[in-house]
TrEMBL record:
Signal peptide bounds: none
Biased composition (Basic and acidic residues): 114-124
Record-given protein name: Putative inner membrane protein
Keyword Amino-acid biosynthesis among record annotations: no
Organism, scientific name: Photobacterium marinum
Keyword Transmembrane set for record: yes
Amino acid sequence: MRRRDYWLYSLPVLLVSLPVFLYATPEATAANPLLDILSLVILGFVFWASLALNVKRLHDRNKSGWWVIVTFLPVIGPVFVIVELGILDGTKGTNQFGPDPKGRGTTPPSQDQGNDKDSITIDI
């Protein structure tokens, strides 16, 4: 996952979670149990989405998904997310998790590719 895509997906997830953190206080949820259930569902989605986004970005940086554990550490976690996942560029070329999403490090297709007159393809 490219940095641009990481931020474009992470910011909406953050915007969804902020109202839940601000308004789903213990006093408010005690008065309305439905709000408590709804906030748990939203926070569950936010947790899952953030975990998936972070692992995809770690894979672009050629790091194992287990590095996501660092994101849960106080003080170090947010700094790690901002620097490692949000600022640093991904691995150039193919790494152990797949090709470079920017297409760097691959050879461009040759000009005569697909113009082979000795072969024919029939789609049924």
